[in-house]
Amino acid sequence: MSCSDHRPHRSVPLASISIAILLLGALSACTSPSRSGTEADSTADTLVVADTENGVDSGGPDLMRPDTAPGVDSATDSADESDAPDTSVDTTGSEERKNDGFIGGACTSNADCAYDGGICQLESDGFPGGHCTKECTKFCPDSPDADALGTFCIAATKMGGTSGGLCVVKCNFGAYPDGGCPQGYHCEVDERIDGSANWGVCVVGSEPKWTPSECQKQLIARGETFEIGYNYKSTEGTSGSVCDVKDPVHFGPVMSGVRFVNGNGDAVKLYGRCALALAVSKTAEWLRDEGVYETIHYGTYNCRTIAGTTTVSQHGLGNAIDIAGVRLVDSESSCGTSADCMTDGVCENNKCKYSWTVLDDWERGVPNPVTVPGIFLHDLAFYMFDASIFVIILTPEYNEDHYNHFHVDLTEGASPFISK
Fold first, then answer.
1. If we measure between CA atoms, which residue out of 200, 90, 101 comes closest to residue 145?
2. Tell me: the pLDDT tens digits for 173-182?
3. Pick from 118, 119, 313, 355: most CB atoms within 10 A?
């Protein structure tokens, strides 16, 4: 049944899982309706009719696809997957510099840029604190340090050169809240040297300095790491309609301490509106407090129209995410083997871990779920609704095309709606 009336969610803290084992015994996960195959949703764009009355996006999910923005650097040697600022301290200059010893780091000689092809652009030549770089033709290497900032190859003329390309770091407001770049450098959106992508990068010069939007300021206040995105206003796959991603950012893959992985199991940055990043951050905060350490999603941005219409999907606006499941640990549990955990639980380091998915654990057609996984997923959906984090929340109760995920979006001007 689909309805839009308010219904309070029922809180089921993870601490209650251990008690639930005693009360309910080993619980069997709900089985999903029989299907012709696991790729049933892949044809959703041609099967779905938009629900224009409720203003919802009933397009299918981006199944098993890496979540990438147009032109995102997907090269294997330059994954652009840094998810947090470097916490190392550089004493060069008046501000802490990130990427110590690597591209974007401070330096006084080439020896300080300890990587293949490292070049130090000296302070005496106009680069405050010195600047480690490297010549490039398309891609730049990323540091093996998981906390390092991402890199990008731009025209050397942007950084005092005369020809070719030079490597710089991407603007990062988690690392540099005051403008996204170290002192003496500013954030601007530039093309990759070959014109294949655009990204917010740090180039020399104190002006113009990027001013964070109000939404970006909120992300900064929440301690989230993000990079400035580019609004490509693509029309690919829309027959002329524009996929207009306002205030675009690259965020994650870790939000509020929760790691987001796509359908392939890869943790890569997500692309979308800043408002979406903020909503994901708030949702992740609740998930983290409930013991979730990893969330499975089926993508954010996908430039397309809602099937049968010329209306751009909320995914095409960078305004939606499809949530497929969670992985969590019961911090209150104590186990010796997996047999001490609930059904499908795994004992690791004497704690029970679980993987709950919308496909396997949503209790379809049951208004008041009875299994622990079912109650948890129900509570997640209603938390996002009751806390007004998302405007539209489509569960498997909405239609067959959402049998394995929650579609949640921020449709502007729509009345709040949740299917249940």
1. 101
2. 888 888 889 9
3. 313
